[in-house]
Amino acid sequence: MPEPLIAPPQPAGPVVEISKLWTVFSSPERRSVVHENLDLTVQQGEVLSLVGGSGTGKTVLLRQILGLETPTKGEIKVLGQSVSELGRKGAASRIGMLFQHGALFSAFSVLENISFPLRELKTLTPTLVREAAMVKLQMVGLKPEDAYKMPSDLSGGMIKRVALARALIMDPPLLLLDEPTAGLDPDSSDGFVTLLRSLHRDLELTVIMVTHDLDTLFELSTRIAVLADRRVVIADAPKEVIAHHHPFILDFFLGPRGQRAMELLREYPFAI
Ligand SMILES: Nc1ncnc2c1ncn2[C@@H]1O[C@H](COP(=O)(O)OP(=O)(O)O)[C@@H](O)[C@H]1O
Ligand SMILES: [Mg+2]
Description:
This protein is of the alpha/beta class. Helix content is 39%, strand content 23%.
């Protein structure tokens, strides 16, 4: 029987539940422990931002939630179901992912890129697939005439929007964003943050986002989780996280960029 296109109603309880997770990469030369007994729970409707130094395993964690990589030990549940049992199709109907570099297929048009996951399912007619992709194209603020452009004709901001439309094509309740505004100029970045905020509200999404960008962080996060010492050292409201004593937090929020962070907190009081 084909998989239903619409994700089943969400059970009460957390959208993502990560418990006692270990990630160990071993090679003959060295053994590297990336996550050690990491716990993290994300509730329905949150925008949880994941921050941490480079190489602390943020991207690996997103890929594990999506089921693209398997943790060495521990469990990840999405909507109450273990990721290892969901399978690729089960994960695809529940989770949308915006990869760090957009990752569009360069030989496909905008519309073909957006509709790719639906076409792979092979359950809808080409006309329905096309209509669904056109709806998502407009949802991310692109114009119908952009549908037949090729990725090489797009600006950085448009590539992100196409990748976002593709991530949302199956109407997933959970959206994962890896550095959504990295590499965008300030105007495109602001526009993308505004779009993310309205989609989060209108589609009642739960969002997990990796970002280094303080503007993005404070504009969107309901909670911030700090990945350091191979685990989540704190996951709390922005003002609690900033007040938490940890060398990474001091450096990230209160180092040279700290002044700016404090200005942002005053600018966006909802983050407090
Ligand atoms: N498949 C892999 N094999 C070996 N090491 C890996 C693999 N994937 C990631 N790593 C290592 O795991 C660490 C975390 O990577 P990553 O999640 O990409 O970090 P970041 O927090 O910057 O996103 C890095 O040291 C990286 O080199
Ligand atoms: Mg990364």
